[in-house]
Amino acid sequence: MFPQLTQFADLGFLALRLMVAVIFITSGWGHVTKSHARSKSIGMSQGFTIFLGLAEITGALGVAFGVLTQLAALGLILVMLGAIQKKIFVWHTGFWGEKTYGWHYDLMIVVMNLVIVFTDGGRWVLIK
Fold it and tell me: What is the distance between the alpha carbons of residues 52 and 49, in angstroms, rounded to a whole number?
């Protein structure tokens, strides 16, 4: 319908990458700086929670700056698949959630990262 807008695809991919980065940097920062409380809330050890936070921050920086973008996005997909697994099989949370947030949000972030993987984040990356 609007073929002239495809010239802005790389701008859209950059916006997508930056949004993913904001989500994971803030989440990862919370895991690292509040690891004791976060470890209790997610049911993991404090050491694993810190590792998870550092993985989120590292992946987010890779996606944001376009450094090994596909690898970074794949790592973030693994983090989100772990969150989905925990919500479905451990906490028995529904797609939309009943008493808490469902796993629809996590799945949306997986799909966002899949777009980054399939497009290599667009042309505006530092290192492919």
Answer: 5
Residues 29/53, Cβ–Cβ less than 8 Å: yes
CB-based contacts of 20-24 (< 8 A; 24+ apart in sequence): 20/60, 20/63, 20/64, 20/73, 20/76, 20/109, 20/112, 20/113, 20/116, 21/60, 21/61, 21/63, 21/64, 22/60, 23/60, 23/109, 24/56, 24/57, 24/59, 24/60, 24/63, 24/76, 24/79
pLDDT per position as a tens digit, 2-28: 999 999 999 999 999 999 999 999 999
Phi, psi for residue 97 in degrees, rounded to 5:
85, 145
